Amino acid sequence: MGAAAILLAGAGIASAAPGSVPSDAKPSGYVPDGFFKPAESTVVMRSGGETPLPEQPGEIGPAASGYALKNVSGPGEVCGTTKLQKTSGAGKTTLVMTVSKSVSAELSAEVSVDAKFVSGKLGFKVTSTYGVEDQTRYEVPKGKYGYIEAYPLYDMWTFNVYKDGKNKGASWAMKPVGVCFNQWTE
User: Angle 84-90-94 (CA atoms, 0-180°, nearest 5)?
Assistant: First the structure.
C-alpha cells in the first residue's frame, strides 16, 4: 500500500485521553501527552482515502445543544505511543511488517462536550474505532540488528469549546488514519 492510502471502517468506543489543555486556542504544533509528532526517521503510511475537512474551518456552531467550536485547526499528523506491533532481526536481512489493527478515535477529556456534536462538526465519529493497515520493509545490513515498531497515525484537530456563548476551554479530537513505523539498527 502507498503512503497516501487510508482505510476507514468499524465502530466502537473512543477513549478519552488526558493531557494538559490550555483554555485558549492551542499553539501551532501542539501535541497532547501520550502522542508525538512524526520525526524525519518515522515512516508515515496513510491507510486509505482522505479524511474530510470540517464543515467550516475556523468556527463551527452553535447547535441546538448550545455548543459551538471556534478556532478549529487541523488536521495535523501525530503518532500515538501505544505500540501496535514490533519485530526485529539480525542482518543481513529484510524485515517486513504488515499491520492490520483497530484503533479508537480520541477526544480530549479536559473539556466536557457532547461527543455527537463534535463528531457532526468534524465529520468523523469521535466514539468509533477505525481500521488501520499498512506494510513496511526495512533492510538490515550484515553485522547489525534491526528493529521496527508500529504506532497508530492520527489526524488531529484542535478547537475551543463554547457552551451558550462562553468559552469552556481548548480541546482536541483525533481520527486514526494509518501507521507510524519507527525503524532503526544497532
Answer: 70
- Residue 140 and residue 157: Cα distance in Å, rounded? 37
Which pTM was predicted? Answer: 0.77
pLDDT digits (tens, 9 = 90+) for 49-68: 555 555 544 445 555 578 88
- Rounded Cα distance between 70 and 72, Å, is 5
pLDDT digits (tens, 9 = 90+) for 128-158: 999 999 999 999 999 999 999 999 999 999 9
Q: Which CATH code fits 4-185?
A: 2.170.15.20
The string of DSSP codes covering the chain is --TEEE-------PEEE-----SSPPPTT---TTEEPPPTTEEEEEEESPPPPPSSTEEE---TTSEEEEEEEEEEEEEESS--EEEEEESSEEEEEEEEEEEE-EEESSS---HHHHHHHHTS-TT-EEEEEEEEEEEE-TT-EEEEEEEEEEEEEEEEEEETTEEEEEEEEEEEEEEEEEEEE-
